[in-house]
């Protein structure tokens, strides 16, 4: 488990490395190229020994799949991860996916499932799954209208710009962000802008309280 510079969590822990999405802006694939965690990033691999890293006393907000997507996790991997989470319920566990029918441990109060919604089509599909507790609109690739939140359990929308030096990098306009913020405010959903939007948003830059930070330090007993 490593402390992270990601603004919306404390640590990352990756029991699985690898993803089949092949997103052109994927930072995880670039990190794997640099450090060689797995030979073929398109073939996710499970490292069950890393689940021991959950066994720390101080409550943390842990992003569990920053180097993978739970959409490609095998069922036995998921079972082992859920078991380790249940033994250590004093943390908050954060998951992201681009497959909008997929969640993990959504019935647990200390698990937060999120959908990566970088386009309008993705946002429309994610809105159909009421088990998602947050969306990550990062990198935002086009104007997105969030209009289907009625009846959804969504707590938060994270918004961020594409970083790095990729050819064809998308630079979002302030109007794109403002539109999402207005829709979230109408629906009572919190907004957390990543630091990549500071220059774009100026005085309108905003970081609401994160739901997993508000949930932190609650005395939740292990599930046996």
Question: Which properties best describe this structure?
Answer:
single chain; 224 residues; alpha/beta; 8-stranded mixed beta sheet; 6 helices; 10 strands; 16% strand
Structure overview:
- It is built from six helices and ten strands.
- With 224 residues, the protein is α/β, with parallel strands linked by helices.
- It has an eight-stranded mixed beta sheet with strand order 1-2-5-6-7-8-9-10.
- 23% of the residues lie in helices and 16% in strands.
Sum this structure up briefly.
By secondary structure, this protein is of the alpha/beta class.
Order of helices and strands: EEEHEEHEEHEEHEHH
Radius of gyration: 17 Å
**Broad shape:** globular
Low-confidence spans: 219-224
Number of discrete helical segments? 6
Distance between the termini: 24 Å
> Strand order within the widest sheet?
1-2-5-6-7-8-9-10
- Helical content class: 10-25%
What's the total number of strands?
10
- Averaged pLDDT: 90
User: Given the helix and strand composition, which structural class is it?
Assistant: alpha/beta
List the helices and strands and how they pair.
Elements: E1 2-3, E2 11-12, E3 16-17, H1 27-35, E4 45-46, E5 61-63, H2 75-87, E6 92-97, E7 111-116, H3 120-126, E8 134-137, E9 156-159, H4 174-187, E10 190-193, H5 198-201, H6 211-214
